[in-house]
Amino acid sequence: MTLKYHTQMSDELSMHLLTTPLLYRILTFQANPQHTRVVRIIIPLLFATVMVVHMAMDEFLLHAVSFGLGVCLIASRTLRTIRQQITDPVVRKNIQNVAIFGSLSFVFGYFVWLIDQWACQTLANIRHSVGLPLAFLLELHGWWHVFTAFGGYIAVAVVDLITSGEVRKDSTEHLAWPIPVVARFMGTATTLMKLD
C-alpha cells in the first residue's frame, strides 16, 4: 500500500474520531442509563463497521454519507439541547449563532472535500495552469481542513459547554479563537437585521 493511501485513510479515520465521541456525548446527555448503554454499544459498532468497510474495500460512499449524517445529527441535537438548557435568551441566541456558524463551516468544508474527492485531477491540472497565487484558492483539500477544523473545534466547545452546565453570560468570550469573534460578528449582524 502506498503512503498516499495510508495518509488518506488516517485523514478519513480522524473525521470519524471527531464525530464519534461528540455523538456519544450529545446523544447520552441527560439520558437514562438504559439508553446510554444502548448508545454505548451501537456507536462503536457503527464506527468500527464503517471504518473496516471503508479501509478493506477502499469504499468512499459509506464513509462520506456516515460522516455527513453524523455531523447533521450532532448539529440538530446540539441546537435542540441549547434551546432546552439555556434559559437566558441573549446567551441562548449567542451560543446558537456560534453553533450555526460551526455547522456551516463543517458543511462548507464537507462540500469542498466532496468536490476535491471527485475532481482532484482536474483541480490539480487547473492549479498547475493558473499557478500561484490563484492555485492556492483551488486547493480544496486544504480548505476542507481549515473549515472542518473551525467547525470541529466549535462543535467540541459548544457540546462541552452545554453538557457540562458551565454556561455563563459571557461563555463564548472564554473560548479560543474564532469563537469570540464569530459571536460578536453574528450578534452584531442579528442586531442590524432587526433594525432594518
Q: Structural class of the secondary structure composition?
A: mainly alpha
The rounded Rg comes to 19 Å
As a percent range, the share of strand residues is under 5%
State the helicity in percent bands.
over 70%
- Calculate the terminal CA-CA distance, rounded to whole Å: 59 Å
Detail the poorly predicted runs.
Answer: none
Task: Average the pLDDT over all residues and give the rounded result.
Answer: 82
The backbone outline, from C-alpha atoms, is flat
Number of strands: 0
What number of structural domains do the residues give? 2
Give the key terms.
196 residues; 8 helices; mainly alpha
Quick rundown:
The chain is built from eight helices and no strands. The protein has helices at residues 3-28, 33-57, 61-85, 89-118, 120-130, 134-137, 140-164, 179-195. It is 83% helix and 0% strand.
Q: How would you describe this structure to a colleague?
A:
By secondary structure, the protein is an all-alpha fold. Helices cover 83% and strands 0% of the residues. It has helices spanning 3-28, 33-57, 61-85, 89-118, 120-130, 134-137, 140-164, 179-195. The radius of gyration is 19 Å and the shape is flat. The N and C termini lie far apart (59 Å). The model has no long low-confidence stretch (mean pLDDT 82).
